[in-house]
What we know:
8 helices
Amino acid sequence: MNGTVLITGGSRGIGRAAAKAFAKAGYDVAVNYNNSAKAAETICGELSDHGVKASAFKADVSVRAEVDEMILRIKEKLGNITVLVNNAGIGEQALFTDISEEMWDRMFAVNVKGAFNCAQAVLPDMIHSKYGRIINVSSMWGISGASCEVHYSAAKAALIGFTKALAKEEGLSGITVNCVAPGVIDTDMNARLSAQDMEILKENTPVGRIGTPEDIAEAILFFASEKASFITGQVLSADGGFIL
């Protein structure tokens, strides 16, 4: 058994695929969700088929009290968290001049403060045991920026800075901190795009296809593995060559 992984936003999309990948690799899995209780319970039922323990835990990651309570419940049920995947996030398109203060704050609250809350909550046990893996899910737009997604791009860029700084601080404690920056992935977040838009994005992706949640899940799993034990503070662009 490889320990326990907490995957925030684990009920669907990339989080769901990551939960399956970790379960297949022998990890017990804590699936965090905020609104999708049924989907979270369903995936946990599927994960148990791999002979591991899996449970769903509700929490809004942007609220520290809810995160702290969630971590306590996970430790009681599944033991200390050895791997944290900060996947929970929201996306939104809007002209910069139309972004309200509320929209900006919510974007950073979920995508950035959520990662801060969860990382800070799990680090004491990781530091004590001299082992831990933290993987943050950013976006290719956090690297290059995207028109009409300034608040999203800024939040995802902040995650990259967070990754690099925390990696330097926690390296001597046996903890690695890395980041995956997905490209265009076939998830609910991109379902709002038209078929024509998706085709254009596909044509602009050098490998000639849209990515799958499983593509990103494998990248996340790699950073958690011993194969990546000498890798920290890095950003892996899993985008099919979109950003070169």
